[in-house]
Design a protein that fits this description.
Elements: H1 2-21, H2 26-51, H3 63-70, H4 73-100, H5 105-118, H6 120-131
Length: about 140
């Protein structure tokens, strides 16, 4: 589980770096979306289908049942990979939306880093940025 955790984390970090630094070519976006996120989704699915029903008390009906999932290494790694995949998916959406709106990459970078590190907080920053778009000039010259 330690190796899978490390591989998934390193791959996701690499994906985020590519998303933030490189031009957003269609091939890059497709590789991240269908390659990296696809791999993460597959790893998550295998972990869930192999280990979920083996974890005593695992479920989603109470905090104790959710705690039981994360009490096993397999459940913890599955949960981590879940976060990695969905946060990157949201990051790609933010990047494409921001590009379409003409946001400068220097504005996008901290929002994407916040999404990588804190998921919904980065999404909130992006939504706040969009909400204040008319009041402040965030568009590229």
């Amino acid at each position: 589980m330690e190796t899978l955790f490390s591989l998934a984390s390193t791959a996701a970090l690499g994906g985020w770096l590519l998303l933030i630094v490189l031009p957003r070519w269609q091939l890059l976006i497709a590789s991240l979306r269908y390659g990296l996120i696809g791999w993460l989704a597959l790893a998550y699915s295998v972990l869930i289908f192999v280990f979920f029903f083996r974890i005593d008390g695992a479920g989603f009906g109470s905090i104790g049942a959710v705690r039981a999932i994360f009490s096993s290494d397999a459940g913890l790694v599955a949960g981590w990979i879940h976060y990695l995949a969905f946060d990157l998916f949201v990051g790609i959406w933010i990047a494409q939306e921001a590009d379409q709106r003409g946001y400068n990459r220097l504005l996008q970078a901290p929002i994407l880093v916040a999404t990588f590190l804190f998921g919904p907080f980065g999404l909130l920053l992006f939504h706040l940025t969009r909400a204040t778009e008319t009041a402040l000039s965030f568009r590229k010259a």
